[in-house]
């Protein structure tokens, strides 16, 4: 679970705070799972036109669309809160920081539309000054608005490789059909190799290789040796919309990219507002779905305490979590095997708090990209810059090594590295908060998203969106555009809602 | 489930027959799972020194070793039978054929020792005559004892590639430490690429590439694009024992290889005999483990009907199935993520029955290797050759295409292909039996074994055998030698038993 070593939170129940404000309380907060098992009671039974399993971004978008179409809907959620991989962490004074999905940016049209619909604004991520790099043991600085600075920072060979190969990746991505990457002309070739093999073919300089590794760790929570080249290309292709093709820069960029804007009130608030509009009775928390059975007329979702009967269900959890539910009848073979082949990345997000964002005074934007524990960071301070918040992302092999340590060591590793990037003022944070999405909690099993090893998209990918009778699948992994982002989750949820409404 | 289109079985409950003969009946055969959930009753509670989850080869070997050490043991099994991926299918007249793991061969020392211990003999797999190949649309024949025949069958380039590269794979495998492939000197390099990339580097001829693909489909139930080169090399390295290094030929060979011998009474009988020796009360069938909790003194395994308390537990199911159990406390992050990254192959085994093994008259051993639906086949007739049984293995992409068809089409695809290999006498089988290990049943989720995509062994592999407190892991995937075979399962089970006994 989330760990704070000094209380800066307003409420005891970290992460549950926002949900509580809209009345989405635990149904029986004093009864443990084990106690419930020892004293079985007759299960309750409820009905709705549509059931939604999972109250993350995809599930809430699906439920919202179903409700707008005038159909009844019940959302069934394992956690004690809504939001899934999107979670606010409360700071004193009413400010929040996000410990999961945070940003929105250009071409993420559905997110901006939903935000407008519920009346939430956005404001630009701090992006003035230089970005720090740590590659091959050396710290250097580059400008986000002048790519030629990479030549100075990475050396001539490495800099030119980045300037040449990144656009080449964009070109290859344009050959990958969004939503159906397995139909690309070169799908078999690209799904036959790892991103590591591609890296070996295209990057010779130690610096450019190190930079590429750092990006991969943060994009997928995995090393280039784990990820299919076709999956990376499909991810790049998806970083756009119906009129603007995706690019690597849209994925990793701040201004003009996926990290451009932040959401007033924090990203989780969007989904809390949707939950409020559905009514707290229709968002059932702390209720893991154990079993989904369907027949000629209905589908039933069974939890430890109740059963829910609907005409259709949207299962809005990542493929890796889908397989922890029992299905009757069994899933089709290829769908079941897909869920065995879409692991969650190795991932954590750490927020380090300072009295103010001192790096701004020194001409730094707070962003780092590097080979150390911290793969990337962003300045995540509230609008007024009080406190200064450094959000650090830790992924892949770096996450596994860091995550094995105890809390004091984990904290020291992060703070020491921030000192290396930002000088001695980074040595004295006023607070430290970490969200370990991998291993420390049950309902994500990793982050930021599921990814595909070679052979998976071409062999099993068509099952990402293919309904199984009354079951329609959602989750950002099954989106067309913006796979892995909140936008992708919303798109997947809205698509699943359309599938459900068409079959009602 | 298993499907027979003409009744040649002696008992109504296919696959449960052998278990029933030793009294391992369903505890409440008349009560369906659903009915049980509607009418909860107070769970029963039982105790033993050691609990074993999974009555497959690994679990039974573990339980046997624990019992021999004088400790009490209870085996908890989801299916209504013992054996796991090892299952006998009864023929009329008391003969059986195996629809899962079947063969034993040189260096599989623990299997031969266990067979001797329970008094079961072996007899040689039929291996006289030529093997059929189907590559690039052409059927040709080779001799198992004269590799130079591959030059004639595959053409000069393809034949020489096979004769050169297969020994090269053996050489590389010798650099891979058995039981710890992630410590190999070139582990990062080999785990960074797919077997497909290796194939592209080493095989130019269409015929040798096609042959290599066929072997991979049957070895792992996967294409070379899905599998890490390091995993393949570790699999080859494991195909031996402490004194004899593994080779590709030991994996795929008949006489002198892993398919050399068959077990009198069928392979499942070994594990049924072990179950008998444990006592039917100590092998609890039809009881999926739902939850495993441990504290400072005990471990508890909870099923739908009962709870079992022990000092130690061996979880003897494949990694992909381990993740469908709930753990309290949660698994370590890297172990949980390993279980997300060890998918089961795509696999089925089909037995086609003829009045006699007519192919023997024509100088054929009944073995095929080819690019069609059937990846490999073996003559699996009973010792007296009545009936003639052709055992066909279907894996990877071929399995996925075949498995989508209905039963008459699946049967036609197989029989038509056998006609292509063996002529018109193959057109009139007297029976047809298929075991679809992937998708058609809950408790394997694929076959023949779990495999590792690139990046998995180096990033997560050390968790295959690492205990988590009172939980020790077994299953053939976690063995040192003979990963993926019954021998590997027995070795893993015996190793887990040693770990458990040391901690009692």
Automatic annotation (TrEMBL), chains A, B:
Q: Which domain of life is it from?
A: Bacteria
GO MF terms listed in the record are: monoamine oxidase activity
* Any Pfam family the entry gives: Amino_oxidase
What keywords were assigned to this record?
Oxidoreductase
Q: What is its EC number?
A: 1.4.3.4
PROSITE patterns with a match to the protein in the record: TAT
SUPFAM superfamilies membership: FAD-linked reductases, C-terminal domain, FAD/NAD(P)-binding domain
> To which protein family does this belong?
Belongs to the flavin monoamine oxidase family.
Descriptive protein name: Amine oxidase [flavin-containing] A
Q: Which organism is it from?
A: Patulibacter medicamentivorans
